[in-house]
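Hi P.,

Sorry for the delay on this. The queue was packed all week, but I finally got your sequence through. Input first:
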Amino acid sequence: MKSLNNLVLKIKPFFVILVLLSVYIFICAISYVSAVSSDIANSVFRLHVIANSDSTEDQNLKLKVRDELLSYMNVLSKDCGSKEEVIKMAEEHIDELNEIASNVIYDNGFDYGVDVEIGTSDFPTKYYGDIALPAGTYDALRVKIGDASGKNWWCVMFPPLCFVDVSSGVVPDSSKEEMKESLNDEEYDLISKTDSDEITFKFKLVEFFQNLRLGLNK
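Then the structure:
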């Protein structure tokens, strides 16, 4: 019994050190994820369209509303050089955006109401060609059609990734440059490099903690 107690006394300091080291690593990971996620979220402005329901008709209507709003916003924001400018432009024309969405709904034979607003929305991890954005809370132009109980549609309005041909796996260099200007080198590598095990691990780390946070919020 005495020898067992001695063994416990010898092991205890190592156990305490191990626990403290684990806590330190966890805190560092949380700090890293928080800083990176905040910088990435602060660099983009997204579009979030929610269909009335999951019926084929409502899902098709969602895409038609999306297309008209994007066409209008692309004209408005063609000379904008920052996320803040795009958001300001959307705020100044929020009534027109509501009217456009309402007209699309009416012209397609539906009488759903629509709510277009600018705020924050929770997004899952999304891939746009060769750019990946981790899950998180982002500023977005949010469009709720009717009961808004159908599947969502997401994209990035700034930098303009909404019309990226995902099947080709290529994002225009101009969009990448705008993204790169808003991020430091490591953050940009995190969303654009897939051939590095280290970068992939860091992305998965950000993704894990952000999904955990979003899950807890729900």
